[in-house]
Design brief:
The chain has two domains: 149 residues, Rossmann fold, CATH 3.40.50.1980; 117 residues, 3-Layer(aba) Sandwich (Rossmann fold). Helix content is 44%, strand content 14%. It has ten helices and ten strands. The strands form three sheets. The chain has a four-stranded parallel sheet, with helices on both faces. Helix 2 links the parallel strand 1 and strand 2. The termini are far apart.
Amino acid sequence: MRAPVTPALALAALAAVALSAGCGAGQDAGRATDEPVGVVAAFYPLQFLAERIGGDAVRVTNLVKPGAEPHDLELRPRQLADIVDADLVLYLHGFQPAVDHAVDQAARGTALDVSTVTPTEAAPAAAEDPDHPDPHVWLDPVRFAAIADTVGERLAEIDPQHAARFREGVADLRADLAALDNEYSARLKNCARREIITSHAAFGYLAQRYGLTQIPVTGLSPEAEPGPARMAEVADLARAKGATTIFFETLVSPKVAEALANEVGATATVLDPIEGLAPDAGTDDYLSVMRHNLDTLVTALGCT
C-alpha cells in the first residue's frame, strides 16, 4: 500500500521544486510583467493591506477561510503550492506555526515578516507571558500604517511598472488609518473607566496606543481555559474597577466571558481582534470593524 501524502511530505516536495528553480516565483527574472503580482496573505489583515495597496495590480490569496481561527491553520498541499508560487508572502512570525514552517522551507526569498516592521515604541507584552509579545499589531492603526509602507515598497520592488500605483495605494490607506487613529484618540480621551476586561490578551497594542489598561482572563491563546483562581482574580478586579462589560471574540466561544459577566453583574459583548472576517461579514472590512469596536468601547467605558 502506498503511504499517504501528508502536508509535511508535500511541503518537502514543493521545497525541492522551489530550490531546483532557484527560488520562489517573485525572485524569478522571467515573471510576466503584464500579470498581477501574486500575493499570499497568511490571514485577513494582511489580505486587506495588500488589496488596498495593490488594487487590480495584485492577486491576493488568503490562507485562512472566513470564519476560521487563524492560529489553528493547517496547510493543505494546494496552499503550500500557493506559498511556493507567490511573488510575495505576507506573514507574521510566531502567529501561525504552519506558515512559519512553510516559509522557512520554501519561501524565504519571497516572504515579508511584518513583525520585523518596528516603530520606535516597544511592543506590549502579553500579561501572562511577558517573553512573548502580543502579535495583534494591526489593532494599532499607527503601527499598521508603518507595515503598509513596507508592503508598498516590496510590491514596488517586485513590479516597478506599477510602483506609482502602489505608492498611491499606500498614501490612500495611510490617510484612512490616520483618520481612524484620530477618531480613537478623540473618542477615548475622556472616559469614566480605562480598563478593558478581555477573554484573552489580544488588545495590548490597542490599549497601549490609546491609554487603556487591558485585563485579560487568559494569555495569548484564545482557546486557553482559565483556572478558578484566575477567574476569581479577574472578577475581583472587574468589581473594583466598576466594569460594566466583559469582552469576548468573534471566532471563539463566549462561555468564559459570559460566565465572568454573570459573576460580576456585567454584560458580555464582542470586541473583535479582526484576525479574520465572519462568513456573513457582508461589506465589512478592517476599517468598519475597527469603528464598530470603537463604538463598543465608548459605550462600555462611559466615554463622553
